[in-house]
């Protein structure tokens, strides 16, 4: 594998090393053995492939841009002693000219005008999340931008990991259901009509359920191509619909009302809310403002509860009491918020609360997966097995009558 390593020498000079190694750890060790301080390590393809991939990443929209990686690398450069302008120049030097012109050059021009980094990021539309911009803006007042960027990168990584666990837990049931549908269509459209051609479906010796199955099979066989086209169109339409951010937001807002999984969806969204609020508060954003900026991470019901909670907090009510009265916290979370009020470390406590809820969510997902998979297997087995049994019942009856 090829790696691109950003290093600094003992004199503080910045360099970019291209190195081949079997792993990121080995590449890091090689660079350190040469006396360099490693700031970041990035896997690369060949130079032409890297340029094409980088160009595609920036031209296909924000979905391909990793704000966590950007925050991590920018924070590492600032911590190494570079200015914001020098850090952006260093990061932009790795990108193709089109990418530099689209992003880094406008940001540098904004900085040259005397504007802060948060204003420069705001001018680059649809690239930086508003939470990252808010963290940078708060750190411009507190003076700890590198620490704020590190916190954002860590939060982004945690949320990505949590999101990947939820997605991976959903993949197997979805694939299992899709395979079962394909098998059933094949049985009804191909296998059952062949049996129907061998057996007189109007014979009174054939059970009524078998006759009904054969008629269904004949109907599916007659319209097999149309059914396949319709199912393919539905699948493509479903994939396209789910790719729309507005649709995913609508589903996420109402998924908390679903039976069995609704509680886990709400817990997942609350975990995101607490983790993001903790990051913003530790970055210097006032607590009510941090909660308001993170409201989009909650479901529709919890978002309404948060609005009433913020009204109570702004009117002088204690934070823990306001959240408890709105029904947004359980007994454990309530006690943790009470402790945060006494210690004055709200950001740290909220981070611990998010970690606690993340552990609960992971255990819940494991239990739900272990429950759903056997249920799906039983339902699919009964469906496919029922079709097979109904196909063979006429043969068994005919064999019995012959004997």
Automatic annotation (TrEMBL):
It is a multi-pass membrane protein. The chain crosses the membrane at residues 166-192, 223-242, 375-395. InterPro entries: GspF/PilC (IPR003004), T2SS_GspF_dom (IPR018076), T2SS_GspF_sf (IPR042094). Keywords: Cell membrane, Membrane, Transmembrane, Transmembrane helix. Belongs to the GSP F family. It is found in: Cell membrane. Residues 70-193, 276-394 form the Type II secretion system protein GspF domain. Gene3D superfamilies: Type II secretion system (T2SS), domain F. Pfam families: T2SSF (PF00482). This is Type II secretion system F family protein.
């Amino acid at each position: 594998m090829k790696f691109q390593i950003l290093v600094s020498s003992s004199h503080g000079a910045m360099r970019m090393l291209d190195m081949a190694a079997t792993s990121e750890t080995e590449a890091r060790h090689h660079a350190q053995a040469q006396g360099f301080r490693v700031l970041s390590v990035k896997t690369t393809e060949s130079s032409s492939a890297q340029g094409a991939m980088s160009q595609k990443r920036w031209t296909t929209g924000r979905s391909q841009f990793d704000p966590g990686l950007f925050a991590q690398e920018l924070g590492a450069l600032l911590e190494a002693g570079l200015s914001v302008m020098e850090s952006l120049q260093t990061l932009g030097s790795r990108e193709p000219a089109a990418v530099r012109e689209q992003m880094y050059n406008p940001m540098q021009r904004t900085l040259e005008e005397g504007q802060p980094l948060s204003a420069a990021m705001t001018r680059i539309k649809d690239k930086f999340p508003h939470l990252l911009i808010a963290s940078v803006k708060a750190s411009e007042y507190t003076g700890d931008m590198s620490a704020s960027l590190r916190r954002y990168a860590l939060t982004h990584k945690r949320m990505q990991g949590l999101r990947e666990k939820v997605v991976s837990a959903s993949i197997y049931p979805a694939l299992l259901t899709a395979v079962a549908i394909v098998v059933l269509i094949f049985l009804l459209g191909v296998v059952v009509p062949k049996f129907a051609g061998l057996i007189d479906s109007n014979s009174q010796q054939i059970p009524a359920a078998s006759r009904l199955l054969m008629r269904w099979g004949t109907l599916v066989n007659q319209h097999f191509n149309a059914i396949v086209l319709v199912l393919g169109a539905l699948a493509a339409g479903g994939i396209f619909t789910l790719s729309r951010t507005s649709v995913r937001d609508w589903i996420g807002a109402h998924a908390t009302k679903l039976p069995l999984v609704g509680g886990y969806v709400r817990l997942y969204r609350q975990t995101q809310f607490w983790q993001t609020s903790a990051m913003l508060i530790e970055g210097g954003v006032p607590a009510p403002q941090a909660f308001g900026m993170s409201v989009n991470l909650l479901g529709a019901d919890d978002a309404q509860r948060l609005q009433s909670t913020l009204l109570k907090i702004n009117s002088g009510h204690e934070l823990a009491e306001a959240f408890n009265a709105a029904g947004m916290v359980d007994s454990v979370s309530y006690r943790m918020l009470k402790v945060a009020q006494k210690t004055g470390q709200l950001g740290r406590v909220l981070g611990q609360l998010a970690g606690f809820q993340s552990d609960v969510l992971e255990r819940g997902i494991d239990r739900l997966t272990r429950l759903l998979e056997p249920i799906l297997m039983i339902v699919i087995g009964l469906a496919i097995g029922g079709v097979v049994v109904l196909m063979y019942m006429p043969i068994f009856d005919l064999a019995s009558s012959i004997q």
